[in-house]
Request: fold
Amino acid sequence: MDAPSDNKPTANHLSPKLTVRLCKDKAGQGVFAVEPVEAGEVVAVWGGRIVPEDIAAALPPNLRRYVVQVEDDQYLAPLDRVDPAELVNHCCLPNCGLRGQITLVALRRIEPGEEITFDYATTDSSPFLEFDCACVKKPCRNRVSMNDWQRDEVQAVNRGHFSPYLQRRIDKAEQAEEKARPSPRSQRG
Reply:
């Protein structure tokens, strides 16, 4: 399904500093900067409909590829067509990240001509959303999987830009790790 080229209202927002075009190194389309985008600037806001996992997994492949997980069993799915804001591709070394569940912001200054990307591990933890990676950035994980959000290098690159449900999981794991560490008092002899 191609992005709409008409001027009908959409459920999403894409910054006017961006445009959709074919990706030379990937099959399909991507979103690219046509003007400089400053760090922290909103590049996209996603909309759609919230569906449970079984419905998201059963969507036709041309729509399922644009599903974004927003909670443990809640997925933001496209409405009846794909909007330009949904065409932001994955990258293991992204230039954008999440602010909340549905807002994408620039992690650094983005120059005209650069593709807008984010790490899908910051939103997705479901096996039906796994895929082979084509980002060719170093270091590329080669495969995006449901547990990538747990990887130290993924957390380091995307710190502060995970979907809230994943951030809660990260915080809980860090708290458990902290509790498991011996206290300085218990190490005295």
